[in-house]
Amino acid sequence: MLYDSQSNDITMALTGESLITRSLSPFTEEGFLKVIDLLRDADVSFTNAEMLFHDYEGCPGIEHPGTWMRAEPSMIGELQWAGFDIAACAMNHAYDYGETGVLVNIENFDDFGLPHAGTGANLALARAPAYVDTAKGRVALLAACDHLQVPGGEAVNQRPDMKGKPGVNFIHVEEAYTIDQASMNDLKRISEALGWEQGKVARRQGRWPQEKWADTGEFFRFGASRRIAPPKFRVGEGYGQTTMMDPEDLKQNLKYVRDARRMADWVMFSFHCGYHGASSSEPADHLIELAHAVIDAGADVFIGHGPHRDKGIEIYNGKPIFYSIGDFILQNDTVLLQPSDAYSRYGLDWWEATPADYYDARSGKQTRGQDVGAVYWQSIVALANWEAGRLKTIELHPIDLGMGLPMGQRGRPVMAQGAVAREILERFQSMSKPFGTTIEIADGLGVITVG
């Protein structure tokens, strides 16, 4: 062979969400350094960068339901120190600081030389692949998401006579609910009484026009934003829910997957999903559809994240689909500053209260929400191993992020041990079984054997 990459062998280290606000490089625990070695020893290592890296050049966005995510630009260097080669930036916090935050974040990633995908100065750039060269071949990454904390964060295409808009590669999703006939009759009666039906006639334009559902027997009402699909209801057996992607968004993303397939030896697709299936551990319908579609279009691996918890793994046409990998770094309670709206939401004096006051109020001093859910503080580093172009094995290395420890200590991954490691791996076993995936557990490690 002329080049090593002709062997078509590669090991990918795949992680979920990195909510990083503190340095990694000072620490030397054995369990932590074992995690770092996994990333550094792989041929390519990936993470979802769940932070905006900037120095507050932009203003915080309004109508925000959560925490405004931000870290010092130097934290990009810490991700590189840990061994990460490429990162996704398409996530729900991408627009927390508006267009300026998007553009400065991109600039800082470029300054540090860490390839990234999923946001851009316009929609074409947000959808375009990022590339990194490795000894085992050129790797492409595409990234998208389906939910945002701040409205209006979608990137927009430019025209010959008009600039585009900076933002995220956004895939629009609509929800449909199945209800019984009696409930449908009640909805229609309420809609007519409150004047919603007349309002629909006046609002037939936009991404989700009324004509789209004409004569289908479905009921809908518009939400507050024309960018967001209004929920629709249809009569059926019992009660249920499904989610569907905008077909044009899907088409355009698959176009770039096919482009990356021709330009790279290996193709990753990252997706930040804000919807669940029938339960919090199940993937939403559109997530399954998207994962299958990008694999069919030429991607080698699909990496889901977004709910801050793990979901199942599927091997589809010999390629791995991770419906969600949970948190790899969880330091969202040491974000340096928050805007006044964040304090007011919890009844705090926005002039006098401190950041620690806000984080204590948000978590009830670690008594509610994410702070008390073990699934948010336990996850994996997945090592996907290919030989001669075929997926052979996936190793699941369980990690522990220190739930319950003080703010200044927790959130950094170490190798999980004993009962915690088994709990993580058995959870993956259970969630992956419906997809026909078998995970063998031995010596604190999970292994999927493919071929």
Using only CA atoms, what is the Rg? 22 Å
- Looking at this structure, what is the CATH superfamily of the largest domain? Metallo-dependent phosphatases
For the record, give the distance between the C-alpha atoms at the N and C termini, rounded to a whole number.
Answer: 24 Å
Total DSSP helices: 11
Name the average pLDDT: 92
Domain tally? 2
Give a written overview of the molecule.
There is one protein chain. The chain is α/β, with parallel strands linked by helices and about 450 residues long. It has 2 domains: about 5-155 and about 250-335 and about 375-450, Metallo-dependent phosphatases (Purple Acid Phosphatase, chain A, domain 2, 4-Layer Sandwich), CATH 3.60.21; about 175-245, no CATH class. The protein is about 25% helix and about 25% strand. The protein has 11 helices and 22 strands. The protein has helices at about 30-40, 75-80, 100-110, 125, 180-195, 195-200, 245-265, 285-295, 340-345, 355-365, 420-430; strands at about 10-20, 45-50, 85-90, 115, 120, 130-135, 135-145, 165-170, 175-180, 220, 230-235, 240-245, 265-270, 300-305, 315, 320, 325-330, 380-385, 390-400, 415, 440, 445-450. The strands form 4 sheets. Strands 1, 2, 3, 4, 17, 18, 19, 20, 21 and 22 form a 10-stranded mixed beta sheet that branches. The protein has a 6-stranded mixed beta sheet with strand order 6-7-13-14-16-15. It has a 4-stranded mixed beta sheet with strand order 10-11-9-12. It is globular. Residues about 210-215 and about 220-225 have low confidence and may be disordered.
